[in-house]
Amino acid sequence: xxxxxxxxxxxxxxxxxxxxxxxxxxxxxxxxxxxxxxxxxxxxxxxxxxxxxxxxxxxxxxxxxxxxxxxxxxxxxxxxxxxxxxxxxxxxxxxxxxxxxxxxxxxxxxxxxxxxxxxxxxxxxxxxxxxxxxxxxxxxxxxxxxxxxxxxxxxxxxxxxxxxxxxxxxxxxxxxxxxxxxxxxxxxxxxxxxxxxxxxxxxxxxxxxxxxxxxxxxxxxxxxxxxxxxxxxxxxxxxxxxxxxxxxxxxxxxxxxxxxxxxxxxxxxxxxxxxxxxxxxxxxxxxxxxxxxxxxxxxxxxxxxxxxxxxxxxxxxxxxxxxxxxxxxxxxxxxxxxxxxxxxxxxxxxxxxxxxxxxxxxxxxxxxxxxxxxxxxxxxxxxxxxxxxxxxxxxxxxxxxxxxxxxxxxxxxxxxxxxxxxxxxxxxxxxxxxxxxxxxxxxxxxxxxxxxxxxxxxxx
Length: 460
Prior knowledge:
D-Maltodextrin-Binding Protein, domain 2, 2 domains
């Protein structure tokens, strides 16, 4: 909500005085109103309302205003605009690339001071006879911190961000907390694999391409593999094979190298065999190709766990497996898989008390039981280990639904998650490597030129 100037003519009414008294920093919202931006649709908003109601009952007088500016890009655009106007929300969904841009405002809060605060602190709530003081412990114990899945928790460390010390943060600062996570998995047509004599889903890329050739012979009109994210494919292959991608220090852009050139050249050969397509080439999410069935669609589909419901069909049995890994020279397999999904970032709105209360709402969203509820409704993975011990959640994971199958596969990859360095320009790098991959495999540009052009477009 933008601050509105009040044009006063003559004496100021009591109502106007009340309005002015209730306005504080951060978008002109009430001093006890916490504005929260997310991308949640109607169904997930209803789930979030459970946490909001719980928070407001614990802390009477405090109100959560949950707003949905749109998708992730719209949330980012709204936050950047609000930061420029000094009307930023208290809390927002974010990706690390977004936070790298927000840092320049000087308004991103270091959550470590709350996480490490283990003594009781005073907070003001509304009582029957007026304001009263209530005690609350802000921090997490060592046991609580250990309950967060390490790969998710570490994403928020300031050390993952370029120039973090420039903005006043230290090596122990924490800029975001994980809210819910997605990753990529391999969806497959189990019936088609069985009919082709393929006993199980491929565990490595070499196995996948061998299977694709078998399937192409059996189903000549199929495109065996569809991959939704060109950028994720490129970045994941860099991580699995030890090729440089980006660096938190300058020069940032290191993805034009011998390994990536060879990878893109090999992709062109595979594409020329008719073995795969991607979202940009197909013109839509490749789940649409997958659900057509084996004869004219795809048989493997690599996509987000968050999009599991789009990967189901009544034409065949859908299986879900971890993303294939890369076989290395020492015969080991690197199974690294990208970690995505919304984290939570807090902003300074000029009130220390509001910041403390915003943090307590963050804790409400991260409660293991609520994490289970959100996972079962969204398909995203919970960020707490103990969520998997929840009886109702464990029973749900054992089910045959596509979301449950996907969450079970994602759980197998918990120790393999990685994230890339975040800096002002890392989002551009993602965009450019995705485009370079398409230019190369379609033959629009030689691999080396595609990568050189991508680096040039990223700038310094």
